[in-house]
Design brief:
mainly alpha; Amino acid/polyamine transporter I; two-stranded antiparallel ribbon
Length: about 475
């Protein structure tokens, strides 16, 4: 029993038919990671970040990559040490205690749901841009923006959210082969942007490099600066968390999870920095800040309308796969929390086709509402808050288990953990501090609601507490 409640055994065996089948190897996991990481973050948030930091958004991506690299090393150690579904929730439950595990699981619910909404909004912007510039079709502005922008609802974002929900409800699952193909499409599209954009770079666009400074300032009630941009574009990196949620399904967890998590992070960080450097070098940062689909916009401006249409189409085709990856991750979190008794069993109950119907329906509606009515920047910031909490908990779990169980078998060990883990914690806390104030307050309210639910239901129905009471 820890200070935060009972500790879940590291190698708990699920012998009651509730274990997940081991069907994934490292190519599937690496594709899952890249598929989750390379999405709205690079296709859309590049412009948002440039508006907050100017050309310094390159450094924003680099800093996020550095913090996430530290977190990824911690994730790799924990996922290979505890190869069970549930990601940060499971690791925290085992290392710190049930209450802390619940808080992290509740944060992950926020993370995955809002990540889906963010991708849906980004997809909508690319669809609208492609229809307008590709075939000359202008959709009514009232149906393209929420009330914040003078519209009624972002209808394409709602439609794609509900469409993915529908696919999941009827039991459709993203196969590893299709996901790998979609990942290749995204990488080829970004590669084309880099190759065609490099010759068009104008060095003058990098000056001033950091117009709002590093720590930044507040302009019109909004935080700006390199760290403010980092707090938003951080959203672009957390897809590797979805890899750890599939730990229970990995054929060889030690090898597959290590390659999947670290490999997807390395590839994605290099691509992100290259794309950001080209984007702000080709066009003035204020110009791309006002575009919902900055990469096709830049390609059109430098005389490649056909390639711009192709890149836009690649985003339209591939971004829904990110929603599927995130909904997949959320279903695994709900599955494990319900299996542990902290959520009602009905929440994760599967239908005849193997789909967790109720939670998929609830998630789809939640995602659609946020995507339809809330701006992308605010959704991303809220999602980032949940991610940062999870990252801090995983790094803290590494430190605690290294002290409590120094001789436990570890397939992968975080190098110089006494430096890497605290660096991940400090970096995440610093980024959280630079989130918009309303995002911080919303996160606090969300956590209070979660704790009320836990003490009203989860505490009394915890499977582990019941076992220890027998």
């Amino acid at each position: 029993m820890g200070f935060f409640g009972p500790l879940k055994p590291l190698h708990r065996t699920e012998a009651d038919g509730k274990a997940l089948a081991k069907t994934l190897s490292w190519p599937h996991l690496m594709a899952l990671g890249i598929g989750g990481i390379i999405g709205t973050g690079i296709y859309t948030l590049t412009g948002v970040g440039a508006g907050l930091a100017g050309p310094g958004v390159i450094l924003s991506f680099a800093l996020c990559g550095l913090v996430c690299a530290c977190a990824a090393l911690c994730y790799t150690e924990m996922s290979t040490m505890i190869p069970a579904a549930g990601s940060a929730y499971t690791y925290t439950y085992s290392a710190i205690g049930e209450i802390a595990g619940w808080v992290v699981g509740w944060a992950l619910i926020l993370e995955y749901s809002l990540a889906c909404s963010s991708v849906a909004v980004g997809w909508s912007a690319h669809l609208v841009g492609w229809l307008r510039d590709g075939i000359g079709l202008e959709l009514p502005a009232m149906l393209l923006n929420g009330p914040h922008a003078g519209g009624l609802v972002n209808l394409p974002a709602v439609v794609v959210s509900l469409a993915v929900m529908g696919l999941l409800l009827i039991g459709a699952r993203e196969s590893a082969t299709i996901n790998i193909v979609l990942v290749i499409i995204k990488i080829v599209a970004l590669g084309a942007f880099i190759v065609l954009g490099l010759p068009a770079i104008q060095s003058g666009n990098y000056d001033p490099f950091a117009p709002y400074g590093f720590i930044g300032q507040e302009i019109g009630g909004e935080k700006v600066g390199i760290m403010a941009a980092a707090a938003i574009v951080f959203f672009a990196f957390f897809g590797f968390d979805a890899v750890s949620t599939s730990a229970e399904e990995a054929k060889k967890p030690g090898r597959d999870l290590t390659i999947g998590i670290l490999g997807s992070m390395a590839v994605s960080t290099v691509i992100y920095m290259l794309v950001a450097a080209v984007a702000v070098g080709v066009a003035p940062f204020r110009e791309i800040a006002n575009s919902g689909e900055p990469l096709p916009h830049i390609l059109r401006e430098i005389g490649y309308p056909i390639v711009a249409a192709a890149v836009g189409m690649a985003a339209i085709i591939a971004l829904p796969s990110v929603i599927l990856v995130m909904m997949y991750g959320q279903s695994r979190i709900f599955f494990v929390m319900a299996r542990d008794g902290l959520l009602p069993q009905a929440v994760a109950k599967v239908n005849a086709k193997g789909s967790p119907a109720l939670i998929t329906l609830l998630t789809g509606v939640f995602v659609a509402v946020f995507a339809g009515f809330v701006p992308l920047k605010e959704i991303a910031a809220l999602s980032n808050a949940g991610t940062l909490i999870a990252f801090v908990a995983v790094a803290l779990s590494v430190i605690i288990l290294r002290v409590r169980m120094p001789n436990a078998e570890r397939v992968f060990k975080t190098p110089v953990y006494w430096l890497i883990a605290p660096a991940a914690i400090a970096g995440c806390v610093f980024i959280f501090w630079n989130l918009p104030r309303q995002s911080q307050m919303f996160t606090l309210v969300w956590m209070v609601i979660g704790l009320v639910f836990y003490f009203a239901y989860g505490f009394w129905n915890s499977r582990l507490r019941k076992e220890k009471a027998e």
